């Protein structure tokens, strides 16, 4: 049977991840055929640089695909099957502030965790809800696959404020770690692994990992993680992928300190921010954070290469690479478009899947995905250690959404105070007041 051709809107067309997604979509056209791609962004100059290069790439490699880049919501969201959303409200300039303001008070600032993630969440909620509303207005049957961060807070906001919308929130970190697990085991692909996992976004644990024959792979991975974290054998020999930056290498190695807290499981790398926040502060340079690193490396590389392609008028010798981690997005879109019943880790309402946990929490758990969306798989009861940590973190995420909705200074102060990463309520208030001063353009007014 011939597969129906899809029409895709990429929201955040000017993202550094857009070219990698386009290359990835091009590589998957046989299993996920596309008739139209539209880029949407609210920064025309930024988007144009990426769009001009992508237009050339598409013309050269798949001329049958119609391509449009626009800042007009009606043009972007009309006649669409999927919206793939990766926006960053406030861009890197604001990410830099999210990271540097907490550091002034000796607190780690990070894109999605702790106070940095809270500030970013207060900006993202409005931006993502706006995309959902455009989609529903112009293509009511479409699905939004959202990976705009902070995914945990965005997911809670869409659950609460747009409960009937067809939006699925997803993260590539588990997929990225599973890729490393496969490498550690000497297996060809992460797709050979069958996993059980539970948690919140950037806050979870694997409880079971098997190969397709059902053999338990946990002991072998745990043995490696205990010694080396998620560093791959190649990295340990100094022959790793040069594109993995030092800060990420540190993160993958740090997992060896996070792992022993519950040696029966395997942890998500982001738990380091919650369990060893002071270590991250010590390592951080308050003058040069991850935002600076990304602007100096990924942003320069991607925009430089796109501008070069546009100038040459050809991408034949392009250095732009497929973001193959991003292929999980195609798996998800295919599951919905063609009812493949793929098993995937998604951020969904708990609804009893973790039986001893808040049914209204947005949790990251395996789901079977078909044309009518995700069906979460029961993970049962979780231990007190994880339950305690997760309850505290869910309270933070829910308080942020309530603060945004009600314009409540009080609730945002409470959110910052509840975060494990913030040492006390006074520091929480100082950070909050500094955030408010720089976020007037993006946050609702707080009373
Ligand atoms: P980026 O700044 O390069 O790109 C974001 C784009 O969004 C910019 O072009 C910006 O102009 C645009 N934008 C901002 N607000 C908008 C709005 N309201 N409407 C439309 N467009 C808007 O950022 P990046 O580093 O490429 O990351 C993009 C996003 O993807 C971030 O949220 C990042 O955290 C997220 N991300 C998530 C995952 C995941 O696994 N969940 C993985 C990678 C990146
Ligand atoms: C991981 C996370 C994402 C995050 C991305 C990029 O893949 O899952 O949520 O956005 O890393 O982080 P970076 O610091 O490189 O922008
Ligand atoms: Mn993520």
From TrEMBL:
Catalytic residues identified in the record: 172 (proton donor), 270 (proton acceptor)
Entry binding sites for substrate: 95, 149, 290
Domain called Glycosyl hydrolase family 4 C-terminal: residue spans: 197-421
Alphabetical list of CDD domains matching this protein: GH4_GlvA_pagL_like
Membrane-crossing residue ranges in chain numbering: 7-26
Keyword Membrane set for record: yes
Cofactor binding comment, as recorded: Binds 1 NAD(+) per subunit.
GO function term, MF aspect, one: oxidoreductase activity, acting on the CH-OH group of donors, NAD or NADP as acceptor
Site keyed Increases basicity of active site Tyr: positions: 111
UniProt keyword list: Cobalt, Glycosidase, Hydrolase, Iron, Manganese, Membrane, Metal-binding, NAD, Nickel, Transmembrane, Transmembrane helix
Keyword Metal-binding in annotation: yes
GO terms for biological process, alphabetical: carbohydrate metabolic process
Protein name per the record: Maltose-6'-phosphate glucosidase
PROSITE patterns assigned to the protein according to its UniProt record, in alphabetical order: GLYCOSYL_HYDROL_F4
Family statement drawn from the similarity comment of this UniProt entry: Belongs to the glycosyl hydrolase 4 family.
Positions bound to Mn(2+): 171, 202
Cofactor(s), names only, from the UniProt record: NAD(+)
One Pfam family linked to the record: Glyco_hydro_4
